[in-house]
Structures are given as structure tokens and as C-alpha cells.
Amino acid sequence: MGFLLTILLALLASVLGGLYLLGAFRWCRPGEPPLDRGPIPWLGHVLEFRRDTAKFLERMKRKHGDIFTVQLGGFYFTFLMDPLSFGTIVKEARTKLDFRKFAQNLVQKVFGYHSDHRFPQMSSNKHLMGDGLVVMTQAMMSNLQNLMLHSVGTGDNNHMPWKEDGLFNYSYNIVFRAGYLALFGNETPKSTESMEKAREVDRVESQELFLEFRKYDQLFPNLAYGVLPPAEKREAERLKRLFWNMLSVQKVKTKENISVWVRDQQQEREEHGMEDFMQDRYMFLLLWASQGNTGPAAFWLLFYLMKHPDAMRAVQGEVEEVLKETGQDVKHEGPFINLTQDMLQKTPILDSAVEETLRLTSAPVLTRAVLQDMSLKMADGNEYRIREGDRVALFPYTAVQMDPEVHPDPLTYKYDRFLTAEGGKKTDFYKGGKKIKYYNMPWGAGITMCPGRFFATNELKQFVFLMLTYFDFELKNPDEKIPDIDTKRWGFGSMHPTRDIQFRYRLRF
Ligand code: HEM
């Protein structure tokens, strides 16, 4: 009898322990945000969240208001949906809210990279601003010219053939390859015996890399969530190894014009004694961070301009003005136009068009791990207790970028939304009569805010400048509807369309 009782008690203890781990005993304590554990033990709401993050969070906001805690795959996430209160999370000390802890797991899962070293972040990121940015922007220009204009002047001026492509594929391809070459370096003429040959090797090699990257890109959301079926998991492993090899430190070291951003990060790791194979993995991580978002953003920017003739005219006028000011003219046999960092500072209309594009199509989830019990003070004065071990998150796309009070008619592309009446940058946006600081957050915010944002903006602007100056281009179907956003990718940055849009283009010179 005693033995039976012991077994029963053990069984009961393990059932209760199991239920505890599944989150069945978590209740909302006084002072905590409303808790919504979801329909499935432990998994919580994760299926609905993954199916369409924006829709799910809209539903939760309608149900619970501006702050709520939901269970997602064993973790409790507190989402804060009031943009006036974002500062409490963005500015909170790292002793309470930490990004690294959360990011490390993802980076290991997706890129195979892990390291015990803590590297000084500033040394790498300073190169994405100031003088480093000037040099990188110049390198981007030269690589865009190589990819987009290498056949200029080779045909009969009047009969340049039209080419057809998907606009998404074309924009992503060009911006990815030029960005990759600008950061990871070019083939040396020494190894190929001529400059022309070296430039051709750059074109071929970057194309191979792009094709493989797109395969990985498509597996990425499921890989990040750890739900790839076995065959796709094997394919992701194959691709990972291929990138570690294609981007290996030994290979990159044979290149010339490697950006200081990539070179410094590699040297830092070498000096800290990191093994070569782990440095190779880090190179892949840098490729992903730098090239995964800008190409898709270039697509949306060009597409919105093509769908809005008033926006296209305004940008075209600005482009012509900037070129005229610097005395540059595009001629059949003349030199390529050059767009420097200085010139790219003089384009408030294009800046606004870029910002509007990102408002509509960049949708990161910003997550922090809660390192100690703490309280969150909202702009309305209410205070909420948050537990150690949980996570807090922002999804600015739903919380602010699509808020009709902050951005009237939020689904419509308005190229001048971020322009003042005087033609400068508009930063005054309001909610509930209060001026709001975080009115558009495509780059994230705070300590983890995208350090590549200045370079990315330059890349987008250079791409548009060259398209408008050197090419005729048009949609195959002028009545083409704006494609839907692929909801599988919410949370990772630039969104992709659910389908490509056919267009045709030809060189004018
Ligand atoms: C349109 C293009 C881009 C978009 C929309 C974008 C967006 C983002 C976002 C949302 C984050 C995470 C921010 C957070 O969690 O708070 C991020 C991080 C990062 N981005 Fe970008 N990015 C773009 C282009 C670039 C480029 C061109 C580079 C490099 C040259 C770059 C380098 C990085 C790096 C290194 C991080 C990690 C920062 C850290 O954890 O310290 N990004 N980006």
C-alpha cells in the first residue's frame, strides 16, 4: 500500500511538474499586464503568431489594450503597443533588458556562429558612419556601375534591346551583389591579369553567391523558428557550409578594396584568437545582416515610384537637379556619373520616398530578455510589473507605422509624408495630441538600432539614381496591383512580396 502511494505521489508530482513547465500554473499577479496563455499548453499562441504576426497582435491589442503578455513557444512575451511609451523599453539599462542574450541563440541556430568573447561593438560600427561611410558609398557606386552599366556604349544607341525580369528579382540581385562587393572586396587585377577580367569575375562570382543566398533566404523564417522539415533542414545545412566556404577568411583576404567594416571585425576576432572556421561563420553573419534587407527595400522603393507618377516626377526632378549642380551630364561616350556621399545629402524628396517605403515594408520585432524583475512605466502613468526570465517586445509596424492617428491613410504610399511644407525633413508626428518620438522604426531603436542605416539609405538612393538616369523601364502591366506582403516574414526586417512583378528595362546609352 505504502509502495503504491509512493508511485502515485511520484506520478502526481511529475504531472504537476509537467503542467508547471507547460505554463499551466502561471496566473496574472496584481500589477502585471493582462496574461493570454493561448490555446495550446507551452506553445501558447505561437501558431497564430507565426501565421500572421501583424494580424495576431492587432487582435491582442483590440482584446487587451496597449500592453499584454502572451505565451509563445514556452516564453512569455510582453508586447507594448503604445508608441508614446516605447522609450521605457528602448532606453532601459542593459542590466534589466538585454538584447544580446536573445540574439545569441538565434545567431547560433541560423548561422552556426557562437563566441564567448565580448567584442567592442563601437569599433566596427563607427566605420558605417563618418569617413568609413564615404569610402563605402564610393565603393558601392563603382560596383553598381560594374553590374548595371558594363554594357553601356556596346550597342547601337537607337536599338538597345528591352530586357524582361521580375522587378523584385532584378532589384534584389543588383543591390545585393553591389553591396556584397562593396563590403567584402573585389577580385584583384593581379590574379586575372586585367582590370576588365577582374570586373567580370566579380560579376560572375557575385551572381553565384546571390542565387545561393536566395535559396537560404527562403528557408530563413522556418529555420529561425526551428520548424524546418528534414529535407529542408539538410538543404539549409548544405547552404550554410557553402557560405562558410565562399566567404571564408582565407578567400576574403585575397581580395582588394575590402571595406574597413568587414576587415576590422575580422581582425578583432583574429587578435582575440578565434579559430578560422568560426571567423568564416561570422563572415556569413555579416553578409546576412548587410544584404538581407536592402535588396527587398530597393524593390519596394522602385515599385512604389513606378506606381505613383507624381512621386516619380518629383524624384526625377531632384535627381536631375543634383546632377546639374555638380555639372554631370550623361552622354553616350562620356564617363559614368558619380554619386558621392555629399550629393546624396541633397535629396530630401528621395529621403522622404525612402522613409515612406520603409514605413510600409520594414517590420522587425524588437525583443529584449528581462534580466531581473522590473516595472514598466507607460506614458499614461500606469505602471506594470514584469518578471525576470520573460521577454518584452515591440512591433512598431502595427503599433505605430500603421496607426492612422500618427500616419493618416496609413496603407497609402505618400512620397512626401516625411517632408515639411518648406521641403525639409518632417519629424513632427502626433498621437493623442502629444508629439511622438518613435514615429517610424524600420531600423529598430536604441542600442541595437541598425548601424548600417546610413549606408543602406545611400545604396537605395544610388540604385534609384542610376535607374532613372541610365534606363527606360516600365511595368509589363501598367495596372499591376500592389502585391501582398508575405506574412511568413513578419519580424525579420524588410518584407518580401508574395509574388514578383514583371517589368522591362533597357539602357538608354
Ligand atoms: C533597408 C535595409 C536595412 C534594414 C531595414 C535594416 C534593419 C535592421 C534592423 C531592424 C535591425 C535590428 C534592430 C534591433 O533589433 O533593434 C538591424 C540590425 C543590424 N543591421 Fe541592419 N538593416 C538594413 C541594412 C543594413 C546594412 C546595409 C548593414 C551593414 C552594412 C546592416 C547592419 C546591421 C547590423 C550589423 C545589425 C546588428 C546590430 C547589433 O545587433 O548590434 N543593416 N538592421
Features:
509 residues, alpha+beta, Uridine Diphospho-n-acetylenolpyruvylglucosamine Reductase, domain 2, Cytochrome p450, 2 domains, six-stranded mixed beta sheet, three-stranded antiparallel beta sheet, 50% helix, globular, binds protoporphyrin IX containing FE
How is the secondary structure organized here?
Elements: H1 2-21, E1 35-36, H2 46-51, H3 53-64, E2 67-72, E3 75-80, H4 86-90, E4 97-98, H5 100-111, H6 121-125, H7 130-149, E5 163-166, H8 167-184, H9 189-192, H10 195-224, H11 230-246, H12 249-252, H13 260-271, H14 276-291, H15 294-307, H16 309-325, H17 341-344, H18 348-361, E6 366-370, E7 374-377, E8 383-386, E9 391-394, H19 396-401, E10 430-431, E11 434-435, H20 453-470, E12 471-475, E13 502-507
Parallel strand pairs: 1-2, 3-9
Antiparallel strand pairs: 2-3, 4-6, 5-13, 6-9, 7-8, 10-11, 12-13
This protein binds protoporphyrin IX containing FE (HEM).
GO molecular function: heme binding; iron ion binding; sterol 12-alpha-hydroxylase activity
Family: Belongs to the cytochrome P450 family.
Cofactor: heme
Give an overview of the whole structure.
It is a single-pass membrane protein. Its cofactor is heme. Heme binds at residue 450. Strand 7 and strand 8 form a beta hairpin. Helix 7 packs parallel to helix 20 (453-470), helix 13 packs antiparallel against helix 14 (276-291) and helix 15 (294-307) crosses helix 16. The strands form 4 sheets. This protein has a 6-stranded mixed sheet with strand order 1-2-3-9-6-4. The longest helix has 30 residues, at 195-224. The protein is built from 20 helices and 13 strands. By secondary structure, it is of the alpha+beta class. It has 2 domains: 31-106 and 365-441, 2-Layer Sandwich (Uridine Diphospho-n-acetylenolpyruvylglucosamine Reductase, domain 2), CATH 3.30.43.20; 121-148 and 161-331 and 448-507, Orthogonal Bundle (Cytochrome p450), CATH 1.10.630. The protein has helices at 2-21, 46-51, 53-64, 86-90, 100-111, 121-125, 130-149, 167-184, 189-192, 195-224, 230-246, 249-252, 260-271, 276-291, 294-307, 309-325, 341-344, 348-361, 396-401, 453-470, and strands at residues 35-36, 67-72, 75-80, 97-98, 163-166, 366-370, 374-377, 383-386, 391-394, 430-431, 434-435, 471-475, 502-507. The protein is globular and about 95 Å long. Helix content is 50%, strand content 10%. Protoporphyrin IX containing FE binds at residues 121, 128, 289-290, 293-294, 297, 362, 364, 366, 442-444, 448-452, 455-456, 493-494.
